[in-house]
Amino acid sequence: MNVDRRRRENGAGDGLSEGERTELARLRRENAELRMRCDVLKRSLALWVEDSRGR
Fold first, then answer.
1. What is the pLDDT of residues 3-54, one digit of tens each?
2. R_g over Cα of the chain
3. DSSP states along 13-44
4. Which of 21, 26, 1 is nearest to 11 (CA)?
5. Ranges of each domain in the chain
6. Backbone phi and psi for residue 32, each to the nearest 5 degrees, phi listed first
7. Within 10 Å of residue 21's Cβ, how many Cβ atoms?
8. Which end of the chain is less crowded, N or C, counting CB atoms within 10 A of the terminal residue's CB?
9. Which of these, 6, 30, 27, 28, lies nearest to 18 by C-alpha position?
10. Counting beta carbons within 10 angstroms of the beta carbon of residue 16, is it exposed (0 to 12), middle (13 to 18) or buried (19 or more)?
């Protein structure tokens, strides 16, 4: 095993282990998806309120 890979796996460098970096990437993707869903719901609610007031 080379030194760079061993350092990455042991968390040297950025302070995160390989597993933590993997989890961080997954959580960032999940966070982006949840933000997008929240934005869609807010826009849908705004359209629904606008439509219900217009009738």
1. 667 666 665 567 899 999 999 999 999 999 999 999 999 999 999 999 999 8
2. 21
3. TTS--HHHHHHHHHHHHHHHHHHHHHHHHHHH
4. 21
5. 3-54
6. -65, -45
7. 13
8. C
9. 6
10. middle
